[in-house]
Amino acid sequence: MYSQNPVFIPGPTNIPEVIRKACDMPTLDHRSPAFARMFKPAVAGVRRVLKMAEGEVIILPSTGTGGWEAAITNTLSPGDTVLAARFGMFSHRWIDMCQRHGLNVQIIETPWGQGAPLGAIEAALRADTGGTIKAVLATHNETATGVRSDIAGIRRAMDAAGHGAMLMVDGVSSIGSMPFDMAAWRVDIAVAGSQKGFMLPAGLAILGVSPKALSAMETATLPRTFFDFRDMLRTYAAGGYPYTPAVGLIAGLARAIEVLEDEGLDAVYARHHRLAEGVRRAVAAWGMKPCAASPELYSDTVTAVVVPEGCNGTDLVKLAAEKYGVAFGVGLGEVAGKVFRIGHLGMLTDVMVLSGLATAEMCMADLGWNVRLGSGVAAAQDYYRSSAGAMALAAE
User: Fold this and answer.
1) What's the confidence (pLDDT) of residue 394?
2) pTM of the complete model
């Protein structure tokens, strides 16, 4: 039977029908004025979502991982040093990519469940009196652990150290769902993907690139061809690409930004916070806790739920998929089996989230975990009922 259940993974997210239909279009000549008319609003919309004051938007047919690679290969040279904290699977993967490209990665090992360590970052930059560190890499939202790091705080640490490194931010699971301010935080490269807050299928890497990063592009010598920003920018003036783009996804991106802006970006962020808080109330009612070490680190797009001793989070995820046709996220890396993840971003409502929480409870009961059916759902219901009026007024 065709499944109509929503997914509760931290991406790809559920696709609104209007966005799906926007992607479903006849073949279009990507070198024609018709494509340029579709492409330019998508680029302008990304600028608004990122809160860019200057610089360029680059949209590549790829994923967030390709966006990471494009960020480093366009701005760095073999042997350059970058600074990065490792506190989850996705910060680890970006570090691994840099090492494979011949970069020297100065790693700040950080417990999983913590965020980017501001004090350690500042100390490392202060110690780099010769300016060896060319870039600081930061994962804004670590989906493996449900942790949101303080990007504004990282910028303050960089300023306090008086260091001129570039700031590169993985915002794949935050941009379009949680506040992001590229101009105020002076981010040099922001990386997003189509399949998270933009509510599209996977297939686009979306980058905001500052003038400082564009300048670094002129002297960087890491190899790049498909991801070369220079080729992209040369064809942008005519509204085109140096190769065949993902035309349907770009049409969908333009429509997705209309959907986000029709709701209002502040309202989108408030909705995500509200949905996330309902999930956290449910987790507490189950007698469990998020993997994130403290409330200021809680992500508004995904909660990694630490399962009780003797239980395995992967068992719950497998059972939910096999018995109920519902997708949750497994634990990754150091937290594999220790958590299961509830994604609450993109096209989701109170009612949809409640269905996910109810399914999680059924799985816990089926597995013999010590949970009272309805406890988490009731806690989330109480929160959503008490905050529904405020959300309705905000939407008017």
Assistant:
1) 42
2) 0.95
